[in-house]
Amino acid sequence: FQSAAIISPTAPKRNRETRISHPYGQRSSKLFKDIIASSHLAAGHHKEEVSKETVVPHEYMLSIYRTYSAAEKLGLNASFFRSSKSANTITSFVDKGTDNLLHSPLRRQKYLFDVSTLSEKEELVGAELRIFRKALGGPQSAGPVHIQLYPCRSDTLLDSRSLDPLDSTKAGWEVLDVWDAFHAQHQQRSQLCFQLRATLGKSDAEVDLRRLGLDRSGRGQQEKAILVVYTRSKKRENLFNEMKEKIKSRRSAEEKPTKEGKGEKPRRRRR
Amino acid sequence: TAPSNRHGKRHGKKSKYRCSKKALHVNFKELGWDDWIIAPLGYEAYHCEGVCDFPLRSHLEPTNHAIIQTLMNSMDPNSTPPSCCVPTKLSPISILFTDSGNNVVYKQYEEMVVEQCGCR
């Protein structure tokens, strides 16, 4: 068994021993070798170069994890929870959209999500857009306000909510069902775009979204809108799928030429 | 037969190593997976270890094939190896991780924890 990893001389001895004495030998698949190599790369100094980008998990995802893992310890199957929509995978995508500051008042907002990592092999069982609404000093409108969500390239209403004027005094999350958007864009769902607007009462008069605490300026990571997608594996999933994807993304990161190129040579791999 | 101990019970070396569930703590950091697994940091996976020798205990839930193989092994160890001590019941765990697009994903992975070992 020959690993593709360059083991750092400072790497723990334990790792080197594991590499040498691994029982799977030459019969192991290429993927398995890659996983072992990847583990050793990560254990060594190379990891610092590859995983510089730190992801801050959204509090909502942490709470999902906490709830379902606690249920699991009690012997309950998380997929039976109504909130999980019988999914065994829940993926969160952080909004990449920005408000156009030139537009004042802010009549419409676009929420953009890169969903290219969603697997076609998984059955989609639900999707919701969670938008954070900041607290404002006092009621900003005389009557109830209706917020409506549409796909960016369609006039088909996805979901709507009524907001009481008093709602604007306290912060909170608005949850909108966007499952239909996935059905509509089933063929090419690498990017999803939603458009939000708000109208006063039953009129068509659009309300400034800033007055509802929906503007995106100065928001922290935890306050960004997220698209939460619930999927169910059609067949038994294993950790190799995730490792395979990680290895691919690591490789593509390694293959990207450095922008500065200040005499840096690409890291050589020993086979 | 194994020699009797002072309590009159047969307590041979083999009975000590009969197929059973043993501790196996998995630390994702030691595996180098902490760069994509957010939580948990590790978990108790357990593993199965020990011999499946004649006579097989019922709690090991042997398959009919394992019973035959064990019997054959007891009659002639050179002709047939003993049956294997393997996980017969596993349970899932929840994992929170980042995918290749740096999106945070919750996933329930099946068959991560050994609940029961048996002879197969």
Ends apart, CA distance between termini of chain B: 24 Å
The portion of residues forming beta strands of chain A comes to: 15-25%
Low-pLDDT sequence parts of chain A: 1-28, 45-52, 259-264
Any idea what the shape of chain A is?
Answer: globular
Strand order of the largest sheet of chain B: 3-6-7
Average pLDDT of chain B: 88
Placed side by side, the strands forming the largest sheet of chain A appear as 1-8-3-6
Description:
- The complex is a heterodimer of chains A (271) and B (120).
- Chain A has six helices and eight strands, in the order ααααββββββαββα.
- With 271 residues, chain A is α+β, with helices and mostly antiparallel strands.
- In chain A, a hairpin with a 7-residue loop joins strand 4 and strand 5 (159-163).
- In chain A, helix 2 packs across helix 6 (239-255).
- In chain B, the strands form three sheets. Chain B has a three-stranded antiparallel sheet, with no helix packed on it.
- Chain B has helices at 13-16, 28-31, 64-75, and strands at residues 20-22, 25-27, 37-39, 42-44, 47-49, 85-98, 104-119.
- Chain B starts with 12 loop residues before the first helix and ends with a strand.
- Chain B has 120 residues and is an alpha+beta fold.
- At the A-B interface, helix 2, helix 4, strand 1 and helix 6 of A face strand 6 and strand 7 of B.
- Strand 1 (89-94) of chain A pairs antiparallel with strand 7 of chain B.
